[in-house]
Known about the structure:
By secondary structure, the chain is α/β, with parallel strands linked by helices.
Amino acid sequence: xxxxxxxxxxxxxxxxxxxxxxxxxxxxxxxxxxxxxxxxxxxxxxxxxxxxxxxxxxxxxxxxxxxxxxxxxxxxxxxxxxxxxxxxxxxxxxxxxxxxxxxxxxxxxxxxxxxxxxxxxxxxxxxxxxxxxxxxxxxxxxxxxxxxxxxxxxxxxxxxxxxxxxxxxxxxxxxxxxxxxxxxxxxxxxxxxxxxxxxxxxxxxxxxxxxxxxxxxxxxxxxxxxxxxxxxxxxxxxxxxxxxxxxxxxxxxxxxxxxxxxxxxxxxxxxxxxxxxxxxxxxxxxxx
Length: 288
């Protein structure tokens, strides 16, 4: 009985957060003055942590032959990610992948009654678990693929692309502490977890220049980063009219606003804390 009451309370709080996110997103979306050439004007946040909801909104308006399907790795409970606006407001189908069983169950419990087109997969995505992800995905060419695991994101994205997935839009988190030009990521370590010290909290993920190397090598085109310096967006050029993409002038780099606030220092000082840590030079590996 007590467990059931707790579940109902959690569900009630989740629905309140969903209602707030939808209202916030609707208000922010309507207040935009969109310049189709400037992604900074596209942004709004309903469920996304930053302006990704708005960036995806504009890009998806221009996708050729959309299939209205997404895949997201690292969905948590669904209340703050890049695809919930698509699933709840636009009724996209999708594959929601989360390694924490409790968070995945919470996501399923709240979202399934509102969208039966969602599939929930409890899975820590690793290089040896891509086949399971593939078996659950409806297509290897979703409109949107979002990846946010705060760790070996580069190595997972590389394996995803090499396995045959070709999303029209690919959203990845970058680590601004590496700066705008260093093409680096952390070395592959299957069980990587962010540490708790100041330096450890900055030692994760991939630089924006590193992401550009990877995606350009696979035929993708860089669009922009969000204005809060968290996510970078890439697209398959053939999925969009050239006249649209050719006029887009995105933001190449922005400081992660959270790291900037917490460390009260810009990326060179943040990078100084981790520059002696092992780093994987992406550009050097691709040209060697």
